[in-house]
Amino acid sequence: MSVINEVSKRYATALLDTVGADGLALEEQLMSICNAFKQDDKMQNLFETPRISSDAKKEIFKRAFGSKVDPIVLSFISLLIDKNREEAIYGITDALILENNRRLGRVRAQVTVSSKDHFDSSIEQEIKALIENNRE
User: How far apart are CA 77 and CA 92, in angstroms?
Assistant: First the structure.
């Protein structure tokens, strides 16, 4: 595991431990922030440039997202800004989703079939059994 992945995992685990059972809302909020950064290059550049002070970045973030995210998320982003790890938000979000999936027993599966007509109930039952076995 690379250093950034280990760092991302640690931040994600700590954040999930802080919010407890509200991991799903946290996932959605962090994904929204990441999507906003990905869609707006100016916003992303603003947070990644070292020429803008940490206080200015935190104020801009608070104005942009303050009413849309939980105060814990605001505090978390402020921490990332203070530690000059703003660019880690993407890896942290990915790590948080994986950890939350593990905690909730969610399994991601992708099924590809040649046509819907060939997807019969016996295959469906096998897939369900595999998912159930992975939850244990």
Answer: 11
